[in-house]
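Schema walkthrough. Field components (list of strings):
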Amino acid sequence: MKGLHICILLAVSALVLFFADGLSPYWMHVAIIAMYYGILAASWSLLAGYVGLFSLSHMAFASIGAYTSQLLINWYGIPIPLSMVAGIAMCCFVGGLIGWVCLRMSGPYLAIFTLGFSEIVRIAIATEDQVTAGMAGLHTDLLFPSAATRLPYFYTAFALLAVSLVLMGLLVRSRWGLFLRAIREDEQAAGASGVAVARFRILAFAIASGFAGLAGGFYAHYIPIITPSMGDLDEMAKLLVMAVIGGMELLPTAVGGAFFVEFLLEKLRDLADGGGGVHWQVPVLGIDIELHNFDQWRLPIFGVLLLLTMRFARNGLITPFWLHFMRLGEARVSPPPAVRDLPQKDPGT
Amino acid sequence: MSWDYFFVQAANGAVIGVIYALIAVGVTLIFSILKIVNFAHGDLYMLGGYCAYFVIELLGFPPLAAMAVAMAALFLGAIILERLMLTPLYSDATERKDEYGLIVTFGLAYFLRNSAVIAFGPFPLKPPSFIPGVTRIGNLILTNDRLVAAGIGILLILGLLYFMQRTIWGQALDAVSQSRDSAAIVGINPRRFNSLAFGIGAALAAGAGALIAPTYSLAPDMGVAANIHAYVIVILGGMGSTLGSIIAGLMLGEAETLFTAFFPDPTRALAYQNAFGVLMLMIFLVFRPQGLFGRRHLRME
Amino acid sequence: MSAGQELMRGEGIVKRFGGIVANDEVDFVVTEGDLIGLIGPNGSGKTTLINVLTGHLMPDGGEVLVRGERVSGRPPHIYAAMGVARTFQLTQLFSRMTVMENMLVPGLTRPHSSWDEAARRARSYLEFLNLAHLEQLQAKNLSGGQQKLLELGRCLMLEPKVLFLDEPFAGVHPRLRDELIHRIEELHRDGRTFVVVDHDMESILRISRRLVVMARGSKIADGDPAAVRTDQTVIAAYAGL
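Field assembly_structure (string):
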């Protein structure tokens, strides 16, 4: 990423922050939620896209972060930033633990295990309602209790997203980023090349889960109530849809996917409200279905979009745009002669 | 504790076990042949149940025939899906095949589940009984529907085993599951068998859904729990082992039901019922990933 | 090359798979400056031994020592850090990473390495292997021969004391094979120690200074190639198959 790209991104950020208060409360909320998912999508793509650990427990960590933060406030009365940090720490710890337990697992085994873990977390939170208020929901303290608008939350979410991306980006560009990718490409070869595979797998889990906890903690103190369903499989599926549609192998495309899906979801809801409904009849078979909730179709539509993306554009829909952006400012020269003259496969050796 | 209570629960557990076995056998079959874990399997089970329901309601078929129709419909539907979405798994150009299979089937599950909520409504539906009423055996009272479900379920499982062992197609399927390349050399077309495997797996799941629907009702999210149970069983039984899945399915059904029945705190029991299977799953994944009967861990590619 | 210090030793290595004893109390010593050819009929346990000696398998019995320090049971990256490098039977590269990135991974695992220094070393090795012009290409786009050379390059980035080459000549074009042999010999002259496993008898005999023969899990010969070749037990082992 060159200076040019950074300048463009800073400029865009400045514009966003400057014009933020022009947003209606509804769309500001949508933007905030999009940024919440953005942090989650980026950290999930770190785990699944860069290291190749396909975890389905990411949203569970968000809920762990959220509940830990609020419960600590309830029990010990600590200030919110501190409780959020504690939530992050809890997620790093548990995440690392899960990473350790999963060391010998790969692919679907890992997915199934993390799916199981996610369910246990959800069920435990829902059932132990003495502690967590269960399905009724836990009332949470707000970051800005006296704020008139959502604007401070917008700025906070933006800052958290930016910081997360910078930190994760630095990791990815560092030698550890190389090692993580090597693990994904070929774990055995990575070990033979000196990469401490076990250590990095655990670290990746801990770090990614920590970011999930950060997002969850923010969510807890933005929305005044949290329920166990914030970490359920539907949420995880939605996150997966977001990251994959955007492009799960790069941080910015995963975030882009989150924004894309979230905004589109809301835009479709917007349209639907104006619409009315669909009435589908097949007289021969006596089928008579009336669908008034067009906005419910948004979710299956994204399911189809996911399938289409996987089938025909596996790198993600946003990836070509991002790659194009990254190529801006590259001098337009023809490829160096050595590469051009190279036959596709060197036949001599 | 009364022995009657125990026996009734044990019987119920056996019934559930048969249903679980049916579902898991499908996942195992798909895993053996296509080398992917089908994350949409529970939702195929759900669709089967709903399909049978609508065949009964709209076309007036008797419940058993409706089940057969549902199985056939899902069989065909699954093959179509497989042709549409899963063919990249067979091309060398596709990288990270297990990830592909995972995401695609997960996405499929997402689509089916959410479509089901819209198409069928979020409220549970109860199809009519196969055979209304109950049967008395000694002091035990068992609903006829449960007996039918278990009975037909067992027949289906036996049918599958017979198919795999005794028929040409079944044996070919078995051959492909053990070694694609060898099978191809002998003249078997592995691709055709992918479709067949996916279709049969789906059909079995559909049958399971149709069989158990009169007992437990239909809901759009019934696939979620079924999925989890499928994974638990498949891993307990050993990925790739048909017999293992059957035995593990029966065992899990029994264990789960008895656990819930005798758990000291009844309000918590139901909530933790699902967690029971999941906990078993996680323990096995850590300590014995090859399950009880599994072959050595199969690498995906 | 005069006999140098002992670099590595495997003592009484035992490895079982199910009912099969792949390595049956094998002793294996690697001395500085060695160029050992490890041969034996199929199933003799050669690759298993390599896997044990490079940390990819844990022995059921016996020990692996690197310069006197016990390493058996520790993960492979420890072996790599101690200067034990290996290639794989089927080249295992980081396919979607570039040639340079493939080289940088081992380069940067070394303590006190910087990107610049690692890149410099990488470039010089790539030059040596005639791969420098392919630096930005994804590893999967290299020809089979180039991939083998890249794997060798990856080993070199570890600045290893011992290089284990697992069937480097398998299915390889004669011209590439000659190039590989040329490179191995040049590296050996520069002071590197090699253990080469292969079935290509001609190549092995060409380069080996010492020959170790395995059959059915045991070491049956170890010494000067000329002597080993005429050893009756060795001939019997090959003939018996």
